[in-house]
Structures are given as structure tokens and as C-alpha cells.
Design a protein that fits this description.
The chain has 333 residues and is α/β, with parallel strands linked by helices. β10 and β11 form a beta hairpin. It is globular, with a radius of gyration of 20 Å. Helix content is 33%, strand content 28%. The strands form two sheets. An eight-stranded mixed β-sheet has the order 3-4-2-5-1-6-7-8, with helices on both faces. Strands 12-11-10-13-9-14 form a six-stranded antiparallel β-sheet.
Length: 333
């Protein structure tokens, strides 16, 4: 399986590091994540890092690694893979970094076992309108992204927040904008459901539902549609599923994740659809197959204004058969 890479961009002081740390703290300890920073930050940290390789490493929360890029990013990623074989790599770019070249370089490395999962831009709601007017980089960061996190939104008035969103919409209308509160953002939104994250979480809890349906989701700033269907005699084909996914607009539909049986042989797959892209992974772990033997579909859809998508989701995922489709509205502050 390729190593998924999540890239964080954002202007200096937008809160990238704080947001990433809150994400890492929510991951299972057995999930092997590496954070690659492409700039030197704290001098005290830098002094501890070996400079003779392409990365320097510092232990972080939950056993994660913080790696500071010394040489070229390509060499650093290769070295990370060889030394640590991480389940996921998070790249925190410098405040002045252009996201497009980073994304291009990762896509060039697909044959080497890396895949770009998403680009996340963190915006400081207190200061965005100041640096957005003067910084070409800030404008590019807001334009070239899969999701925009509105950080520090609690520290501005509703009117000022509306003005920030208006300014962001002028740069990028189609990309999801999600409020990022004091408790950070859910890994489910940023990471979706990758195979290793599910395996680690399931092996720890042995509860399928908690890994597909986060009971704390309603505390987040996103709507949820949850689809539950027991085992059926016939399944959707892969082509039918992909046709359905292609109808889901990425400005409203952020993530679609969970389990679904496909094809004539009714095999079970893990689906992870993120910001217009998807992966399907065949379930081969025997314990998981035993746990899901009666499951046809267990899917969570995350996004905004999802009420209007209820019928389309029901039609697209239940294949004309009975099943449970429920909507949980976002908890708005």
C-alpha cells in the first residue's frame, strides 16, 4: 500500500503546528505517523537534529516523529520510508511555501510508494484580511487546496468571520471551508479512513461502529449521513459505485468512508473518498471479515448542507434495497 501524505499549508502564524499536534494526539499510539517540516523552527530543536542526512528526527506525541527537512523533499521522503516505514506522512510547509510544486513532486513519486491524500490550508481568521491583501503566497495557498480550515474563528465576531469567508470565497469558491475550534479538527475529516488507521483502531477497540461512526462527530462543524445496510444477495459493481462518487461535489461532500460489498462475488472493501478522489481497499484481515460478515454497507458521508443529498446517497449506496440512512446535522457554535 502506498504511504498517504497530507500537506499542511498556511501563512506564518496561522496555527498549522497547533492544528497538526491536536491531530496527532487523537491518533492511536500504534499508528506510525511522521511529521516532516520543511523549515527550521525552534533553534533549541534544531540543535538536537542531525544535519548529515536529509531529515533530522525528534520524538513527538503518541510516538510520532517530527522530521525537519534538510535537503530535497524527495530524498527526505525516501529516507523516511526506508528508516521508519510510516503509515502516514504529514508535511508542514513553511509560511512562504507554494503548495503546487510540493503536490507535483509527491505525485511524481507515486511509483515509489507515495500518494497525495490531501492539501489542507490553515487560515488565521484574525489576520487573514491583512496578509491576504499583501501576500501573493497567501492567495495561492487559499486557492490550491482541498480543504480550508478557519482557525481562531472563536476570536472574531460573526460579522468579521463572514467578511473573512467572503474574502476566501473570492479566491476559492469551490473548496470546503471548515471551522477549526480550540479542540482542533477530527482526523476523520483530514485523514478519512486509511487501511492501517482502521486496522490499528479496530485491533484496539474491536468495535466496528466506533471506527466508522465517531460518536463525537456532532461536536464538529460538519453534517453526517450514516448508511447502514445488512448483507444482501446482490451488490453494487465497482463501476456503479464510481459513477455515484463522481456525482458527489467536492465543495459539499468532504469525505465518504467505511465498508461496502462490491461485485458479483460480494467482496468487502474499505472505501475512502476524499475531496473528489477515492481509494478502494479489499478487506483481507480475517478478524475484520468475521466482524463484518453480516455487513453489506456501513458508510459515513461528511460535508455541509447534506440534507439535499439524502435521496441521492440512499439511491447510490443501497442499490434499491432496504437500509438505514440517517442525517446528523453539524453542531453550530
Amino acid at each position: 500500500m502506498p504511504i498517504p501524505i497530507t500537506v499542511f499549508t498556511g501563512f506564518l502564524g496561522s496555527g498549522k503546528t497547533t492544528t497538526i499536534l491536536s491531530l496527532l494526539k487523537q491518533l492511536p499510539a500504534e499508528y506510525n505517523a511522521c511529521l516532516l517540516k520543511n523549515e527550521f523552527g525552534d533553534n533549541a530543536v534544531d540543535s538536537q537534529l542531525a544535519k548529515e542526512t536529509n531529515i533530522g528526527v525528534q520524538e513527538m506525541v503518541n510516538g510520532c516523529l517530527c522530521c525537519v527537512l534538510v535537503g530535497q523533499m524527495k530524498l527526505a521522503l525516501q529516507e523516511l520510508k526506508e528508516k521508519y516505514n510510516p503509515d502516514r506522512i504529514i508535511i508542514e510547509t513553511s509560511g512562504s511555501a507554494f503548495p503546487a510544486p510540493i503536490a507535483w513532486q509527491i505525485r511524481e513519486m507515486e511509483n515509489e510508494g507515495f500518494v497525495l491524500d490531501s492539501i489542507v490550508t490553515v487560515i488565521d481568521c484574525q489576520n487573514f484580511m491583512g496578509y491576504e491583501d499583501t501576500s501573493y503566497t497567501a492567495k495561492l495557498q487559499a486557492q490550491y487546496t482541498d480543504v480550508i480550515l478557519l482557525n481562531k474563528h472563536e476570536q472574531v465576531s460573526e460579522r468579521d468571520l463572514d467578511l473573512v469567508i467572503d474574502h476566501v470565497n473570492e479566491l476559492n469558491t469551490d473548496t470546503p471551508k471548515v471551522k477549526c475550534g480550540e479542540n482542533g479538527i477530527s482526523p476523520d475529516l483530514i485523514f478519512g479512513l486509511d487501511t492501517q488507521l482502521f486496522s490499528v483502531a479496530y485491533n484496539k477497540t474491536h468495535k466496528l461502529e466506533e471506527n466508522i461512526f465517531d460518536p463525537k462527530h456532532q461536536e464538529n462543524e460538519v453534517d453526517l449521513i450514516q448508511v447502514i445496510q445488512s448483507r444482501q444477495e446482490t451488490s453494487l459493481s465497482k463501476e456503479q459505485l464510481i459513477q455515484f462518487l463522481d456525482t458527489m461535489p467536492k465543495d459539499d461532500i468532504y469525505r465518504i468512508k467505511g465498508f461496502i460489498r462490491l461485485g458479483q462475488d460480494n467482496q468487502l472493501y474499505i472505501l475512502n473518498h476524499a475531496f473528489g478522489r477515492h481509494t478502494l481497499t479489499l478487506v483481507e484481515h480475517q478478524e475484520t471479515m468475521d466482524e463484518t460478515k453480516d455487513v453489506q454497507t456501513r458508510i459515513t458521508v461528511m460535508g455541509q448542507d447534506l440534507r439535499m443529498y439524502m435521496e441521492k446517497v440512499k439511491k447510490g449506496l443501497l442499490n434499491g434495497n432496504d437500509g438505514e440512512v440517517t442525517l446528523t446535522k453539524a453542531h453550530r457554535h
